[in-house]
Amino acid sequence: MVVPQRLITKRSRLGIRRLSAGNIGGFIGSHSREHARCSGNCEGCSRAAPNPAVGGSTSNGHSLNKETARRGFRRLQSVTGVLLLLSSAAGIYLLATDASLWLLAVSHAVGLVIIVLLDLVLGLYSLASAKSAYLPSIAAAFLGFVLQAGDVLTAPQYNMTVSYFARYLFGLWSFDLLLGLQIAIVLVGVAGRPHAKYLARRKTRRGRELDYSRRTFVKAFVGFAGLVGLGAAIGSVKFALPSSASTQTASSSQGGTVQGSVANVNKLQVGTPVYFDYPSGYPNALTKNADGSLTALSILCTHVCCECSFDSAANVFYCPCHGSVFDMSGRVVRGPAVADLPTVQLRVDSSGNVFPTGISNPGPCHP
Ligand code: FES
User: Fold this and answer.
1) What single string gives the DSSP state of each residue in 95-143?
2) Residue 37: what pLDDT?
3) Which atom of ligand 1 sits closest to the CA of residue 336?
4) Full-prediction pTM beyond 0.90?
5) Does residue 301's CB lie within 6 angstroms of at least one atom of ligand 1?
6) Which residues, at least 6 apart from 329, have a Cβ–Cβ distance to it below 8 Å?
7) Can you count the helices (H) and strands (E) in the chain?
8) Burial status of residue 58 (CB atoms within 10 A of its CB: 0-12, 13-18, 19 or more)
């Protein structure tokens, strides 16, 4: 389509410019400012006659030369370095404040430790203007984003629905900040592509000035993913070790005389819970009350499904992850949990054997 000359003139008088990755890259390199001041004679500007020896340009039509490309790239790396260090700090905060990561999902915690370390090392390298950190930084941030966002899909592994777990995770400001910073690192990296590509084409005596290729990116991405995967696998081995509650279950269960029964009423002591799994893999506590009645509760906290333990001094169930407290009838005494513990329905036979028959209010941690 032919655009009338008077429209082009009007458009440029108004200073309207197309927004693109190249513009942002130009902003990082302050090339736009130079362009605005330029009278047509500055080096590397598209208003000047093109210099075939230079050969680079941003997508908004600006030519790049060695100096502008290097300066722009240095600024890009400074911004990336700061974002990576902030991302690392957000990860450390998350690891330090969310006990459920260590008690419920050790493999995720170890994976996050590796992401934090990668961010830290790459951040320092970027701030030191190490050109080799450019693509690995984008790869690490992209991987971190994918793994963090993909975390919600592991909810069934912890007996939660995906939507419930997503609400919990995205409700953590440090988790959101971590995701936001990782996206920002990727965007800044992509915005600086014209500078990186220019430097990748330039050759120094020792070779290309910057290693910029899809293969390098993929290699960094796969390498980092392998590292995080290895850490998560090591964390899983630790996770598979018997938990304290399983030990409780084994040591304090008082089975009934009939197969399938979890206790016998006549053997229970008032106010002292015994533990049993129902359904298999879901821990519960059975307590005989002073009036002889029985209360059976799931001890998976209704906040994020960590396992509660019984505090005999206060006669409450306490969640070690974020400190929720439930009384002996399962009611919430202190949050962040808002829902009471689910109740296990029971049947008692004529010999006093107790059988679980169902869960009356399953909540987020039961099927
Ligand atoms: S899992 Fe958060 S308080 Fe229990």
Assistant:
1) HHH-HHHHHH-HHHHHHHHHHHHHHHHHHHHHHTT-GGGHHHHHHHHHH
2) 45
3) 3
4) no
5) yes
6) 295, 297
7) 12, 14
8) buried
Q: Is the CB of 308 under 6 A from ligand 1?
A: no
Write out the two tokens for 366.
Answer: 């039961």
108-138, pLDDT tens digit by residue? Answer: 889 999 999 999 999 999 999 888 889 999 9
Q: Is the CB of 322 under 6 A from ligand 1?
A: yes
- Block residue for tokens 């290309």: 208
User: Could you tell me if 91 and 115 are in contact, meaning their C-beta atoms sit under 8 angstroms apart?
Assistant: yes
Rounded to 5°, the CA angle 64-68-70 comes to 110
Q: For a ligand 1 pocket test, name from 159, 172, 301 the mutation site with the most ligand atoms within 8 angstroms of its C-beta.
A: 301
Contact indicator for 75, 30 with CB cutoff of 8 Å? yes
337 touches ligand 1 (CB under 6 Å): yes
Whether the CB of 365 sits within 6 Å of ligand 1? no
CA distance 80 to 123: 7
Percent of the chain with pLDDT over 70: 76
328 contacts 318 by C-beta, under 8 angstroms: no
Which amino acid is residue 193, in one-letter code?
R
Phi/psi at 357 (5° precision): -125, -10
Integer CA distances (angstroms), 275 to 8, 248, 330, in order: 79, 7, 15
The DSSP 8-state label assigned to residue 264 in this structure reads E
Amino acid of residue 260: G
Q: Which of 167, 299, 303 to mutate to test the pocket of ligand 1 (most atoms within 8 A of CB)?
A: 303
| Residues 161, 155 contacting (CB under 8 angstroms) | yes
Q: Taking a C-beta distance cutoff of 8 angstroms, is the pair 119, 85 a contact?
A: yes
Label residue 42 exposed, middle or buried (CB < 10 Å: 0-12, 13-18, 19+).
Answer: middle
Residues 44/65, Cβ–Cβ less than 8 Å: yes
Determine the residue type at 45: C
